[in-house]
Amino acid sequence: MAHSMGIVMVLSLLALAPLCFCGKTSGGGYLYPQFYDHSCPKAQEIVKYVVAKAVAEDPRMGASLLRLHFHDCFVKGCDASILLDSSKSIISEKRAIPNRNSARGFEVIDEIKHALEKECPQTVSCADIMALAARDSTVLTGGPNWKVPLGRRDSIGASVSGSNNDIPAPNNTFQTILTKFKRQGLDIVDLVALSGSHTIGNARCTSFRQRLYNQSGNGQPDYTLDQSYAAHLRTRCPKSGGDQNLFFLDYVSPVKFDNSYFKNLMAYKGLLSSDQILFTNNAISRELVKKYAYNQELFFEQFAKSMIKMGNISPLTGYKGEIRKNCRKVNAY
Fold it and tell me: Keywords assigned by UniProt (predicted)?
């Protein structure tokens, strides 16, 4: 009898193994890929279907959904706070400088949430939807795949000041950006690998104009920007006006997730100052840029690892937060 009980105990522990192997998050709970296997088995399939449709209709959407996850995780952790609209008690992070006129993809998240609420009401969090959508966007545009640890819950508040202070800006110094990453438990390897997401997507003229005309406040352009590339950029990004004009972050293969972003940096054709300084301002990041430029497989492998690590920033788990019915507002009690 005792022997039988021992076998049952071992089997029970093995059944819980995914919990243990995925590691404890800084938020105090566990995230693991099988979280919805029983409560909502079609969850990942539904997310992938809606994301694939959205990316097919708008090739920019993959980059937008990836960025949304990044901008969420760097503020109060990966808790879907960025999705909340303003209300009597909440000032939306959508109003913050890094998100205003640039964060997009909210309607895609709404569509996913609507489909999931029909399939399994109040089960899948908006925070997990964003983590899955970011992974699916990467895969759909040609990038690496990974198993997304799940089990996040949604916040009941937002932080505009957090968005303004914690999200790296295009004109931040290398040290400022690295400090912002380190505050989230991410290191220089994560910084370079995650910056590689700029292999897809666009940036507005206003986010790099200073490089073309007045990089250091002396009326001179950025000497680390290839001059023929700079001349091309000036044709659509004048000294004044055209703030919202869009430019590819990776002019070589703008809708394909690959390692050409790093090759561009080596050719001094990184669009944003925050991109180019990875190659020009730090010896360690410079070597990482070279490694990823020469070895796409290595970049893909590290990008997946760093995305999982970023997705583990202070998630709400257990009884913390809630599972929002509508990603744009907290539940009414």
Answer: Calcium, Disulfide bond, Glycoprotein, Heme, Hydrogen peroxide, Iron, Metal-binding, Oxidoreductase, Peroxidase, Secreted, Signal
